[in-house]
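FW: tagging you since you asked about this chain on Friday. Here's the raw sequence from the shared folder, copied in full. Didn't touch anything.
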Amino acid sequence: MKKIIKLILLILIIISLYTMYNYTKSNKNANNTNNNNLSINKNNTSSNSKNTSINFNDKNTLENYKIKAPDFKLSDLSGKEISLNDYKGKKIFLNFWASWCGPCQKEMPDIQKLYEETKNSNLIILAVNLGDDKYTVEKFIENNKYTFPVLINEDTSVADKYNVVSIPTSFFIDENGNIVYTHTGLMTIEDMKIYIDKLK
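HL: got it, structure written out here
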């Protein structure tokens, strides 16, 4: 009888240990998943040109509803505070990027070309840097001789407003302040012009 009781106790202990092991393992996996989704990081870049379909910015939603671009206030490299609402009545090409992002670096010469071609037009280009400090951004822009407007969003709060999960990501906003198109990934100047030409 004692042997049977000992055997039952041993089985119960083994089951308990196995259950505790699985519980701990599943918690670790859940934590890892959450940590990977907390913020934009250096692995979260996209080199392929494709339309984004994240949350309220997906293509089907944009075709059927008027989605207002969330307003924000950020400082440019001179320290001047810029608000998206400052550009009501203008077409806006809003680009999110970072200095360490390879695809962002590749498309920037085309953004510069577009800026030079359109700086006296009704199009506003705003390149929002995510996560870099002001000194890093200034050096990057200066070294590459870019002259288009750059805004600094060190805490990535504006990216959160726009549900940006990968960079580069661009938003094309019409004169009424509605997001008409979004694009995640590297773009050429030809791609940019196609989106801009479709803005009414």
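FW: The helical segments are 2-36, 59-64, 102-118, 134-144, 157-161, 189-198.
HL: agreed, and The mean pLDDT is 81.
FW: great, closing this out.
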